Amino acid sequence: MLPLSLRTLATRTLLLLVIASAVSCSSLPPEDGIRVVSAEKRIDLTGPIVKVFLTLKVENTPTASEASRVLLAFTPTEVQHLSIVKATRAEGKRKKKAFVPLSIEASELATTAPDAPRLYSVLLSTPLKPGDATTLEVLYMLTHSLEPFPAEISQSESQLVYYRDSAVLLSPYYVLEQVTYIKMPSNRIESFTRVDPTTRAGSEVKYGTYNNQMPNSYLPILVHYENNRPFAVVEELVRKVEISHWGNIQITEQYKLKHGGARHKGVFSRLEYQSRPSVSGASSFKNLLVRLPPRVHSVYYRDEIGNISSSHLRTDSHKSELEIEPRYPLFGGWHCTFTIGYGLPLQDFVFESVDGRRYINLTFGCPLLDTVVDDLTVKVVLPEGSKNPQPVVPFVTEKHLETSYSYLDVVGRTTVVLKKKNVVGEHNVPFQVYYEFNPIFMLAEPLMLISAVLLFFVAFIAYLHMDLSIRKSS
Amino acid sequence: MAEPEVSPAAAGGGGQLRNVFGGVLCAFTLLLIGVVAFSIRLFSVIKYESVIHEFDPYFNFRVTQFLSKNGIYEFWNWFDDRTWYPLGRVIGGTVYPGLTLTAGTIWWLLNSLNIPLSVETVCVFTAPIFSANASWATYLLTKEAKGTGAGLMAAAILAMVPSYISRSVAGSYDNEAVAIFALIFTFYLYVKTLNTGSLFYATLNALSYFYMVCSWGGYTFIINLIPMHVLLCIVTGRYSSRLYIAYAPLVILGTLLAALVPVVGFNAVMTSEHFASFLVFIILHVVALVYYIKGLLTPRLFKVAMTLVISVGLAVCFAVVAILVALVASSPTKGWSGRSLSLLDPTYASKYIPIIASVSEHQPPTWPSYFMDINVLAFLIPAGIISCFLPLSDASSFMVLYLVTAVYFSGVMVRLMLVLAPAACILSGIALSEVFSVLTRSIKFQLSKFFYDSPTSPGDSSPESSTNSTKNENRNEKSETAPKEKPSKKNRKKEKEVAESVSVKPKKEKRLLVLPFELSVMGILLLIVLGGFYVVHCVWAAAEAYSAPSIVLTSRSRDGLHVFDDFREAYAWLSHNTDVDDKVASWWDYGYQTTAMANRTVIVDNNTWNNTHIATVGTAMSSPEKAAWEIFNSLDVKYVLVVFGGLVGYPSDDINKFLWMVRIGGGVFPHIKEPDYLRDGQYRVDAQATPTMLNCLMYKLCYYRFVETDGKGFDKVRGYEIGKKHFKLTHFEEVFTTHHWMVRIYKLKPQKNRVRGKLKKPKASAKTSSTLAAGQKKNPWQ
């Protein structure tokens, strides 16, 4: 099996190299003289999400002009699975060292060929002067990048996965010195591609040091190892936030959860699952941790056929933790759906800004820890009568407005809908929705009810004082 | 409710104020009774959760979901392919739509007001809402018969009668929940029409009857009870035009309306359940004609005509009856459906239809269940009957007749205890109210005597005033109940006579009615204690006995509450991890739940309309593995679900129901014989069990690898070690077992590939083909 896959890999490598070089000839960004002095790539494969920490020391050649951005390159597959990219720049010397977050945007360059590397540019806060050097810390996360192999396992087997990457850094720049570390959860590593110098120490594999790599060089590697961490994938999550200015924020989250690892095959024996929990169903998971804001109240956990009785809520002043168990343990390929709902005190999350507008300040992502959300929809239902909603989210999302009706609404509530694909825990950052709201609207529904009751009584009084009979009774 | 206008304002300003106060008090009491009726049924929501209960409610819930999603026309035409595979079921034409339409309307109304309640929530709370309605209807009905006091008493008793609670706790979303309200309300409108002779109420009565027909198959009780009462009135010489108005429109309009309900259709005129009403309809017309002629002719001429008519009429009647009997006798089930027949002949079901007999709620009740379900009412009923006879009116005779028939039916089937409950409540209400009024009146009288007698001479004024007040009260009651009633007129005359005589000899008259002061106080106290006992029992029954939803079980142990949520675990697994079109076979009890909660196609369900199909599943469950696999495979089944309680001690599991599968299967496929599964007439699954039992599919699926849990295979329900401990499954594989092993799901293994060049020996193949040929009866789908 292995030699075969290696051979295919080798051909693929060749192909890629050819293409890459072709691309580098045709459409490389205008030379700004940047080159990577040293690069260190640390790939964390311990969880279901691939985390890559990249430390780049770049310098601008003395002869070139000022550089205002540094390009990062990803393969097209990586871009598909790329969930988040963050970059910081180390500023100051030694003790006063501070990391300044930098903004990143997808670069339009070099996307002509179908297999060409996609480029992201890191915008530097202060341009890099010719001859200067700086250090960039880049973090990016890839979801769905671990391919289970074998794709189907039985209850007693543990889960093995493939990870594919390059031994050398894919970069549009000339790389002087580079090293790659791959960290795996356990010592059980079935195989890994050797691209000398390659060393293995326990659960870590080190590729490199490689020197003087040409731009866009790519040396594919394949790691086959054991990963029994829960591959919890939320296929769809709809978070609905309803604001009531009477003092409550109600959040309802509907999950479609899936075990994204190797598919379960054949028998599921409860007996073995219960009597030998360590070996049986090692890759399955039966509980999840949800981190909720503090002072959460009226928490419920149910699905379409009723309450799910297995959950625990722990609250303290800093956070609330809800430990939930799906109705059944999830094995590879199994699905389940559930809904979590909770209330939050209004004053903790809704504030008045200086210009008189109100804004709600909430966390964006999924409160489940260590999960990937394929498709996240956040709906912020503003109270009836609010105007000019304006969401402020620190990253790109799809936005639109709709109207929803609930609890005796007449004109409907403005709802801000934000959609994002491929969300991970790093997306749990605050976002705001600004809106204008006149408190007089709070009284609309009580007044409506009062007038309805009044009308009822008036009608009743009128009925009692009227004689509706056809024949006059004497 | 007692409007102030209705009561005669004879007593002047003070009396009017009292009436207004009484009216408000009455309305407020009724409101509180409604609140009690609603809230006593919420124990299930508080103790468990807001969830649909048991089996049939799940079907009703699913139908309601369909209705709310697709609208009424889609609902009438709904062909459900998720059940009775491969036959399917026409839901729109085979359900009583009343409950579904009621809940669907409530949901639609709430949603059009933008109140976002889910269909499930509406369904859960439909039953408590209608219980409140039913207690108000009881108030109205009893008021018609015996006045406001009895009405309030009866309503309060009905609000918490355990028998009715057992069918209408929150979540028990079943036909009976609305049907009992419809039943009482129909009776109220009938009695109201009988008392007033108003065509308006007669029309309402027909509409209410229509609602009842929509809601429950028990409407035949109404259409037989009312004719019986009409007949009773005619026989006892109580015929009046009011009786005619009360009955004739009901039969005509009611039958026409009933025929509109798809599930009833032409049954409304073609089955013998309805014949009694037509017969009485004819008799009523004959009697009406007789009375009309009697008014025209002189008494002597009338006698002559009478003899003539009677002789001719009898001949015609006999001919009609003979034709009817012949018609009825010629039809296979004698024109009666199985359930109705088992009502008339309690042994019928167990003799001929094991499916009906296998349902626990179709068994005759035991004595303790009477005490459990109607409690002290059982002792109060006789007193109620007596007070119905003093004086006997049309309304009170109806109550007595209702009670007597309901007692009979409840004796046949546990389930019909529900019909008895309102009758018992009404009569007990009447009894209690009579006793209270006698006791309080005597206390009042004694007190007034005590106050006025002691200081000065026995003045005539004081007893007179008190009698006046009682007289007024009596008149109030009478005038409220039946202003045009004949007997009441008589009574009033009598009253006047009494009142006149009272002034002459008041003391002697009163002594007959009045009890000693101490005795009355004691009596009242004892009655209050009795009432308290009843309330405590009802609350206990509501909280402990009747609130369990049966899909989630709890047990209380030393280390707290333990929840067994295995059913929903299994259904959730099925719904998320199997293919949408997979077929699941299980015993019919779990059919409705599987379609509603797991949304998977089932072979049989709780509707039990096709005995052969159920027998096929029963046969498969009681066959050895290979034969069972063949049956299931021919039915396209992919998963088999069994319920097993042996690990945690859940007694109503499939092993305990297994004998019914054998009986029902054996009823259609004679190669399944019940004695093969019994050792010396005893049903057991331990080492003494027969080999047929230990090799049948049900045994194997339930106990597969069970021995490995404790090493011995000790079954906690049966209380012994199982017979066959180590065995392998060859045609099925375990795909899911719930946390407490209560539900186990197996998958049929695919047919083995034929290995090329390694064909089976010709002998063996010949053998299998011959068994196939011989076993054709075994599998009807091949």
TrEMBL record, chain A:
Transmembrane segments: 440-464
Signal peptide: 1-25
Topology with respect to the bilayer: Single-pass type I membrane protein
Localization terms from the record: Endoplasmic reticulum membrane
InterPro entries reported in the protein's UniProt record: Ribophorin_I
Domain of life: Eukaryota
Pathway(s) annotated for this protein in UniProt: Protein modification; protein glycosylation
Keyword DNA-binding on entry: no
Keyword check for rRNA processing: no
Listed PROSITE patterns: PROKAR_LIPOPROTEIN
One Gene Ontology cellular component: oligosaccharyltransferase complex
UniProt keywords, alphabetically: Endoplasmic reticulum, Membrane, Signal, Transmembrane, Transmembrane helix
GO biological process, one term: protein N-linked glycosylation via asparagine
Subunit-level organization: Component of the oligosaccharyltransferase (OST) complex.
Similarity comment text for this entry: Belongs to the OST1 family.
Function: Subunit of the oligosaccharyl transferase (OST) complex that catalyzes the initial transfer of a defined glycan (Glc(3)Man(9)GlcNAc(2) in eukaryotes) from the lipid carrier dolichol-pyrophosphate to an asparagine residue within an Asn-X-Ser/Thr consensus motif in nascent polypeptide chains, the first step in protein N-glycosylation. N-glycosylation occurs cotranslationally and the complex associates with the Sec61 complex at the channel-forming translocon complex that mediates protein translocation across the endoplasmic reticulum (ER). All subunits are required for a maximal enzyme activity.
Protein name: Dolichyl-diphosphooligosaccharide--protein glycosyltransferase subunit 1
Organism: Miscanthus lutarioriparius
Organismal lineage: Eukaryota, Viridiplantae, Streptophyta, Embryophyta, Tracheophyta
Automatic annotation (TrEMBL), chain B:
Pfam families found in the cross-reference section: STT3 (PF02516), STT3-PglB_core (PF21436)
Cellular compartments annotated: Endoplasmic reticulum membrane
Residue span of region Disordered: 454-502, 753-782
Record's compositionally biased regions (Polar residues): 454-471
Stretches of the chain forming a coiled coil according to its record: none
Compositionally biased spans, kind Basic and acidic residues: 472-499
Skewed-composition ranges (Basic residues): 753-764
EC supergroup of this enzyme: transferase
Protein name: dolichyl-diphosphooligosaccharide--protein glycotransferase
Organism of origin: Miscanthus lutarioriparius
